[in-house]
Amino acid sequence: TEDQLAAGRRAHELDLAHVFHSWQAQGPFDPMTVVAAEGSYVWDGEGRRYLDFSSQLVNTNIGHQHPAVVAAIQEQAGRLCTIAPQHVNDARSEAARLIAELAPGDLDHVFFTNGGADANEHAIRMARLHTGRTKVLSAYRSYHGGTQLAVNVTGDPRRFPNDYSAEGVVHFMPAYQYRSYFGATTEAEETERALRHLEDLIVLEGPANIAALILETVPGTAGIYGPPAGYLEGVRELTARYGIVYIADEVMAGFGRTGRWFAVDRWEVTPDLITFAKGVNSGYVPLGGVAISQAIFETFRDRAYPGGLTYSGHPLACAAAVATIGAMREEGMVENADRLGAEVIGPTLRELAQRHPSVGDVRGMGCFWAVELVRNRETKEPLAAYGGSSPEMNAVIAAFKADGVLPFANFNRIHIVPPLNTADADVRRGLEALDRALSVADGFVD
Ligand code: PLP
Q1: Into how many domains does the chain fold?
Q2: Each residue of 170-219: pLDDT tens digit?
Q3: Which of 16, 150, 238, 420 could join 337 via S-S bond, C-beta 3.0 to 4.6 A?
């Protein structure tokens, strides 16, 4: 409406005057105003409609403004907006019960945080206290959050300017078949060599010093490169053998994104700790947490856990989680994500890869896919260098957006990450727009 657009213009002015933004220079830039959102669509400050193929930051897994979740937040707000974490609260108890039920193995206790970064901070703290060790292993090409330790264990360039006080953090090379660090030519070779590298690193760092290994089950922002067969099983075996706590970061991959409730379910691996956030309540109210195994829980049965947050298990956030999980179950959204990946997104992307020479690789599952753009398929030279953008990538993204799709892009990749309940026709329409944007990318192939 006209009123919404006028409010949007005012908000844009005030934003430039007073809001300090994440991850970027504050100088001249023109953030997109969003005046409304519904399901898989958002409307910008000019009233243009976009299909949200980003799920914002890959978190609105049930789309925007799901009526059952909005109603649950309203109902909870009318009853009890907030309560300190030491008190029992029905929304928190029920959210914890549901998450424990969904989590694999004996991960039956939940510590709630405000988001993903602090979930990882607490998981590492638990692992250090549980083992009495200090070091943490994490993968290059990963993202674990913006707080100090979370950004230190992160393996992407956002770590570089923040890389101090990273005591005990050691990075390893992940299994990443498209650009194998190990010279592997088959999936089995990649798994075998990546695991040998990891075991060597554990031995060389001293297993008795290593508290935890943190790994995204399917690395998200770093490229949606799912593990080759056997890799996660090998990580589980190695960490168990050396007494290292295995933390699966499922902040992005969890809660249906991969077509399973937790991504580890695809490989039937049970970590010691799982961190989650984002999809747990579709981001309607900030929430994250750590699902904790019985063995680690036992460490803190008679010993105080030295950590806490004013908003741990916030009633509004937990009520949103209960309603989100309920809506996902009732509407079969996890199964739908699996089907969309297997029957719509995957086949279409593979067909696009055949026709567009700019496509180096397509990979993914569920509603979690990456398209990697290259200048040359033989050399795999990326369309934007690691850690940056390029005029060419910007042109491709601009074409996609001009066609009415809001994309998630990172370096030389476009991620196809719509809400799990996006209508088939909308997914197909978005992929048709991608087809046209890829024609722009083809123009840069040498
Ligand atoms: N871990 C992963 C895998 C993520 O993708 C993110 C956010 O993108 C985080 C952790 C950090 O979560 P938050 O931004 O909620 O702190």
Answers
A1: 2
A2: 999 999 999 999 999 999 999 999 999 999 999 999 999 999 999 999 99
A3: 420
Q: What angle do CA 336, 342, 343 make, to 5 degrees?
A: 85
To test the ligand 1 pocket, which listed residue (61, 113, 142, 144) has its Cβ within 8 A of the most ligand atoms?
Answer: 144
Query: Ligand 1 mean position to 419 CA, how many Å?
Result: 17
pLDDT tens figures, 242-289: 999 999 999 999 999 999 999 999 999 999 999 999 999 999 999 999
If asked whether residues 280 and 174 sit together in one domain, one would say yes
Q: Which helix (H) or strand (E) holds 93?
A: helix 90-102
Say yes or no: 304 and 422 in one domain. no
Output the pLDDT for position 30: 87
Query: Exposed, middle or buried by CB within 10 Å (0-12, 13-18, 19+), for 339?
Result: middle
- Claim to verify: residue 248 and residue 169 sit in the same structural domain: yes
ipTM over 0.85? The verdict is: yes
Question: Could you tell me if 129 and 301 are in contact, meaning their C-beta atoms sit under 8 angstroms apart?
Answer: no
In the chain, pLDDT over 90 holds for what percent of residues?
97
Q: Is the CB of 116 under 6 A from ligand 1?
A: yes
Domain of 211, CATH number, reads: 3.40.640.10
Residue 172: CA count within 13 A, CB half-sphere: 26
* Structural domain boundaries enclosing 404: 2-65+332-442
- 281 with 417, same domain: the answer is no
| 41-44/49-52 β-pairing | antiparallel
Distance CA 165, CA 182 (A): 30
| Helix intervals (H) in 274-345 | 294-299, 315-330, 333-339
Record the pTM. 0.98
Does 280 lie in the same domain as 201?
yes
**Tokens of residue 185, six digits:** 């030519």
Find the 379 Cα to ligand 1 centroid distance in Å: 32
